[in-house]
Amino acid sequence: MSAQPPTDAGLVLFGMRGSGKSSVARSLSALTGRASADTDDLIERATGRTVSDIFARDGEPRFRDLERSAVADAAAHPGWIVSVGGGAVLHTDNRRLLKTVGPCVWLHAAPEFLWDRIRTDAASPGRRPALTALQGLDELRELLHVREPVYRDFADFTVDTAGRSVDDVAMIVLQAWQSWPRSAPA
Ligand code: S3P
User: Measured between alpha carbons, how far is 54 from 77 in angstroms, rounded to an integer?
Assistant: First the structure.
């Protein structure tokens, strides 16, 4: 049965690596029949290369340029569910575009939960190159420390994903989406 959100708005899923954005996007797409797009998928399809290869051979600035194009591409499709890489919303242009899509939902979890998912995810080597001189859990803690204020400020809704299945998170996000746009305070 389709659970169509009562709005034409699309939806944005953002948050750290390992927060389950692309899996939740797929689950929501199956629930609602809405198309979904993941910016890392768009980049890999457009270039025929993995995210890690782009970082290794061309550097992070080139990846961020490609990411900006992927965000613009996804945002140009009204009603889509858009999941973005963990660094995408650090860039002003991306934040501005993503706000035109619909409610922006932060999938939140503590670094320990994220690290558990990342180290067992077969996609990690191709998708998740080192971003700092730190490694593993230390890198995640550092990134989250820097990014959290931006994430918090950008989020229309925050969903804690720790200990929840992908489908449970998708249902919670769907309820938030269905309440959008929030009614103005009286
Ligand atoms: C990044 C997260 C990755 C990918 C790239 C950079 C980041 O996506 O875009 O490795 O800056 O946090 P996921 O968040 O989907 O792992």
Answer: 26
